[in-house]
Prior knowledge:
Layout: E1 2-7, E2 15-20, E3 37-41, H1 52-66, E4 74-79, H2 85-96, E5 104-108, H3 114-118, E6 124-128, H4 139-159, E7 168-172, H5 178-183, E8 187-191, H6 208-230
Helix pairs in contact: 1-2, 1-6
The structure holds ligand AR6.
Amino acid sequence: xxxxTVSSSSGMASxxxxxxxxxxxxxxxxxxxxxxxxxxxxxxxADFQFDLEKASxxxxxxxxxxxxxxxxxxxxxxxxxERSKILSLVRAxxxxxxxxxxxxxxxxxDICQLYTKGxxxxxxxxxxxxxxxxxxxxxxxxxxxxxxxPALEAATKEQxxxxxxxxxxxxxxxxxxxxxxxxxxxxxxxxxxxxxxxRRPNCLDNDYVKGCKVLEDAYSSLFKGFLSIAN
Length: 231
Ligand code: AR6
């Protein structure tokens, strides 16, 4: 008996997993939900106004660096619309570097509804947070705290009250959170990226030497945090 699960809302990131009862041990079996998967937004790209080309270079560079540590785990860069420039740039640069598209791919959709709306199973999602780790503020932070409910807010407070730029915080999600019960998300990783927006705290005033370093640190902390859960 063979079943196929196709998870793609866009056709851009088509993942096809075959489930077969007579597969050899060790080959891909089970369904997609068994594969540790981190979905992450492009950190600092919108409200924090980080340069698009530089942000895409940092993402692809860091993904490449972590590829051989992933085992069977997957990394998925998410954005809301098919017009997303960061997704197309990252896809092109990842293809140039011949990064394995089964281990790293892009996906269009709301990071809070990847399973229910997109059919993509992600046990971990990353948040582009603010330094106070507070709900609201717009962007993906508002969406994730809203979807995670009071359980996410309480679990976050238990771990820490603030975050420095370039750092990530792994928060185990209580099963009472709708993100857990509906979407299958067991952990949220808050990440604080560099800020280039003069109207937000700790603005780097276009210092991209520092900015790129902080963004690289942010993705390193994020991917290390994910691997500590996945392995
Ligand atoms: N699903 C997937 N991607 C999203 C979603 C979503 N629901 N919402 C936004 N994005 P941003 P930052 C994408 O602004 O630049 C907040 O106010 C978006 O298109 O969320 O790091 C916090 O409180 C973009 O590609 O994060 C902080 O103060 C990416 O997520 C500040 O914004 C990041 O955009 C952080 O700013």
